[in-house]
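Chapter review: from sequence to fold.
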Amino acid sequence: MARTSPLHWIGVLFLFVAAILLLVTTISAPVIGDIAILKVSLANSSDIRHSSVTFGTFGHCVLDVAPAKTDQDYCYPKSIGYKPADVMATIDGTVFSRAVADSVDGLTHVMILHPIACAIAFLAFALSLGAGVVGSILGALVAFVAWVLTVVVMAIDFSLFGTVKDHVNKQNKGSHAFYSVGMWTCLAAMVLLFFGMFIVLFTCFSARKEKRRSGSGRHGHKTSADRGMGYDGYATTQTTRTRRNRWF
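The token string follows.
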């Protein structure tokens, strides 16, 4: 790709921003306690204490715990898979059936796809930086893989945390659950990956088409100045028929 279209770099930027957004979701609680995929404001919140539970990719944190005059946060150890249903049942008495609790707990293992999709999105960005035909095609294909993984893990997130949110909010125990930053960054990353992948691939093929067109234009136009010349720069042998005069 001799000349890179500005549109190509917009696609590359989309891939980079998508990777950053997936990173934000990956480092949610308990890595950074204030970043959550699902956040639950607890019933014991007051003007002094704003206790809440933040659920993230690798676990959860309980923020602003007692004593009331200090701001103490407690984050549990990071792990692949944890038990949000049991956490809410212990903290505010939310009731889950055994089947629902097991289903919710099992789905948390799939959230390992967050860091995997993040790493693949960064790889797609790096490949697309080359701006060559091969780099752009590989970048778009890798971005497609990242997009598929993001769609899958986002569907899992909505299913898993949607179940927890519905149980907390419908049982009227004073707590309120809602989707937080980590969920929306994952959703935004999915959209940006799709458009970034499409733009990088489109600009790659359109640039190749333009290059071929310009190449055929240089070598395929017939000159009008000299009919004895063929295609540009190449002389053709022109046969001249000589008329012989007869003297008898």
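Two observations follow directly from the output. Residues 219-240 have pLDDT under 50 and may be disordered. The CA atoms of residues 22 and 166 lie 25 Å apart.
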